[in-house]
Design a protein that fits this description.
This protein is an all-beta fold. 1% of the residues lie in helices and 54% in strands.
Length: 720
């Protein structure tokens, strides 16, 4: 929810809308066709073993062990002090599962056993802790800062750590830094494989992975070190991004009944230079699963008719269609349940009541067996499923969707298939179970990837849209009312078109079209003039290998925003619609940790009245959801710029007070974050608590960097 004050017209525009269910469509993702290229790093004194997933794990006989904080540590017969740096844990109490943090430093020089000099840096920022430690002309500056997850509660306030190693001498020095995290867990999970923590250290080595992201097109990338471990109320994680040519190791081990994650970095630092390391730790309940082997598609709907939103996935490498039962908690916990493991190369999932028996059935598209199938829900709790095949002639099936195409009050099915360039629909005969008759709409969608269906021309029948990757085409197929379709091109410039969607983006009463295209990294929309003549408009060209697009009113301000999934940058993003004509878009990143993201979707997962976002990503096998911090019960009643000068309004360089009047109409007390923007730039923010039924004045300050009257002051409020 946000309000805008325009100093020229001296008026306030507030936008608020409660959640309303929007009919949802899934998009197509590209297939990850291939397995992983391994680089096995053999260390002379260690053996090499392979994990069940084929990743290189180096297991050794010994490791540099950390001491307790009150003791000293011996490195190569040189005694130095182990440095307690647990201020972060004392401050950031939400870092569940982490018990202590310490580090030690050593260099090629001999160290005497001297006290560490610690310098506390005063800070008024409650979201940051800084310290400086000095020892023998080496300096380590540590900073712990809460990561701003902005609109979406991706995780519970993760903390980015920055360690700056400084050589205070003129000559180069070889420096070793060990950062040690004591954790409250007996196992660690890496790349979906669980490892028991023992006295024998397990090293997690970096390696390159090559995936065929498109026939004939490979991409090679370096793995990350994201380690997960269970905590009583959620999942904690440690994340250190791989850096090319950095000499480091990440390991886990146990010593004296304590379990540790250890990061060791070795670096040659030139005289009077510094070196920066930045791991991240956090705690999250937002991961639904890390066992969807090459997750390709995600969808959400109430599967078991218990009035909460469940989640579905399609994963290619394990041929699986699965659903995740929501327990209705706040936040929800999830129970994974398999529907089938026989969808050979599963790439897409959708759900709707196919047989008109008042429960939700599931559909899949699978690439390797050319199959479109549906899974009949028996209405049980939990449901059991009967697999039923619609066709095995969708050559390299890529997408499935369902809607009543022929207006006979039953649900028909559509498919897009890559090799035969085909968009087809399958007529439901209304039987129990239904029988299907196949009809071809086109065989000219070269490398068909995505489909959508809606009454685009508003003539009371269902039209079809497609995205095809090889010809860069977004097309629509006009239904004449008798299911005879006429093809119309919207564009042939969506280079590597993957996904298509349609909704009224500019609030002019007609349906516009959206596309995600991989080869030009573009999210675009096509403005409908009301007569199905389309003007192409770009939202972004920074969605690196865009493969999925979806649209819904994310911020509940009465206009339609856009979401995307892009693989090469591991990103889920949303694009805020400013309500203009035509709209302008502000890019907002939800996460860059959905490793090779394939699919994006949105629904109110936790039934709190706002829009949450879901993703499927293939390289980390992850199905995740991102909780919106928007609270429809907390509203901005008024914003008042206190310092106003007649005919000028805002004076450059003069401190300005803005008062936001916030109202909580809900039944519970709410912790809120209030942000002040001036001309689109964040100027101030504060947190507060507003009791149920309370109205409170929140004051924010800024210094205008420009003068004038036609300037925008915007206040946003979020739940934290």
């Amino acid at each position: 929810m946000f309000c805008v004050f325009n100093s020229k017209v001296r008026d306030i525009f507030c936008f608020k809308k409660f959640f309303k269910y929007v009919f949802i469509i899934k998009y197509m993702k590209k297939e990850v066709l291939f397995s992983i290229l391994l680089i096995l790093i053999v260390v002379s004194m260690f053996g090499v073993v392979l994990s069940p997933t084929g990743f290189a794990i180096v297991q050794g006989q010994s490791i540099l062990q950390t001491s307790e904080n009150s003791k000293n540590l011996v490195i190569n017969s040189q005694e130095i002090r182990n440095i307690d740096d647990s201020d972060m844990l004392n401050k950031f109490t939400h870092l569940r599962g982490y018990k202590d943090i310490s580090f030690d430093i050593s260099s090629s020089e001999d160290f005497d056993a001297v006290e560490i000099e610690k310098i506390n840096i005063p800070s008024n920022n409650k979201d940051k802790v800084e310290n400086i430690f000095r020892l023998n002309n080496l300096e380590v500056e540590t900073e712990y800062k809460k990561v701003d997850t902005s609109f979406f509660n991706i995780d519970e306030r993760p903390v980015k750590q920055t360690y700056i190693l400084k050589n205070l001498l003129n000559d180069p020095r070889d420096v070793k830094l060990n950062i040690k995290y004591e954790i409250d867990a007996s196992t660690i999970t890496w790349n979906s494989t669980e490892y028991e923590i023992t006295n024998e250290p397990i090293y997690f080595e970096a390696f390159e992975v090559t995936e065929e992201i498109f026939p004939g097109l490979n991409e090679t990338f370096l793995t990350g070190h994201t380690l997960y471990f269970d905590e009583e109320e959620g999942i904690s994680y440690y994340d250190f991004k791989d850096v090319v040519n950095l000499d480091y190791t990440v390991s886990v081990y146990s010593k004296e009944d304590k379990n540790y994650i250890d990061l060791e970095v070795n670096s040659n630092i030139n005289g009077l230079e510094e070196f920066v390391i930045d791991p991240e730790v956090g705690w999250t309940t937002r991961i639904i699963a890390t066992s969807a082997d090459s997750g390709e598609s995600v969808f959400a709907i109430d599967i078991d008719n218990d009035d909460d939103i469940d989640v579905l996935s399609a994963s290619q490498n394990d041929d699986k269609i699965a659903w995740y039962e929501n327990d209705g908690g706040s936040p929800p916990s999830w129970t994974a349940r398999t529907i089938t493991t026989s969808a050979n190369g599963a790439v897409e999932v959708f759900a709707i009541d196919i047989d008109n028996d008042d429960d939700i059935d599931v559909l899949s598209a699978s690439y390797w067996d050319d199959k479109i199938a549906w899974y009949e829900n028996d209405g049980g709790s939990p449901p059991s499923w009967t697999t039923r095949t619609i066709t095995t002639s969708a050559d390299s099936a890529r997408f499935v969707y369902a809607i009543d195409i022929d207006n006979d009050n039953d649900i028909d099915v559509l498919s897009a298939s890559y090799v035969d360039n085909k968009i087809a629909w399958y007529e439901n005969d209304g039987g129990s179970p239904p029988s299907w008759t196949s009809y071809t709409i086109t065989t000219s969608a070269s490398g068909a990837e995505g489909i959508f269906a809606i009454d685009l021309d508003e003539d009371n029948d269902i039209d079809v849209l497609s995205a095809s990757i090889l010809d860069g085409k977004i097309a629509w197929y006009e239904n004449d009312g008798s299911e005879s379709f006429t093809a119309h091109n919207i564009t042939t410039s969506a280079n590597g078109a993957y996904s298509v969607f349609a909704i009224d983006l500019d609030d002019d009463g007609d349906l516009d079209v959206l596309s995600a295209s991989a080869f030009d990294d573009k999210i675009a929309w096509y403005e409908n003039d009301g007569s199905e003549s389309f003007t192409s408009r770009t939202i972004t060209t920074s969605a690196d290998y865009a493969s999925s697009v979806y649209a819904v009113d994310v911020d509940l301000d009465g206009d339609i925003d856009v979401l995307s999934a892009s693989g090469s940058d591991n990103k889920i993003a949303w694009y805020e619609n400013d309500g203009g004509s035509p709209p302008s878009w502000t890019t907002r990143t939800i996460t860059t940790s959905a490793i090779w993201s394939r699919s994006v979707y949105a629904a109110d997962v936790d039934l709190d009245g706002d829009i949450d976002v879901l993703s499927a990503s293939s390289s980390d096998d992850k199905i995740a959801w991102y909780e919106s911090n928007l609270d429809p019960n907390v509203t901005i009643k008024e914003i008042i710029p206190i310092q106003v000068v007649e005919n000028v309004d805002l004076v450059k360089g003069k401190t300005t007070l803005v008062r936001a009047v916030i109202n909580n109409s809900g039944p519970t007390n709410e912790n809120i974050l209030v942000k002040l923007y001036f001309n689109g730039n964040l100027k101030d923010s504060t947190t507060d608590t507003i009791n149920a039924g309370q109205e409170k004045d929140i004051d924010l300050w800024f210094v205008p960097d420009v003068a004038g009257s036609n300037k925008e002051i915007k206040v946003e409020v979020e739940e934290v």
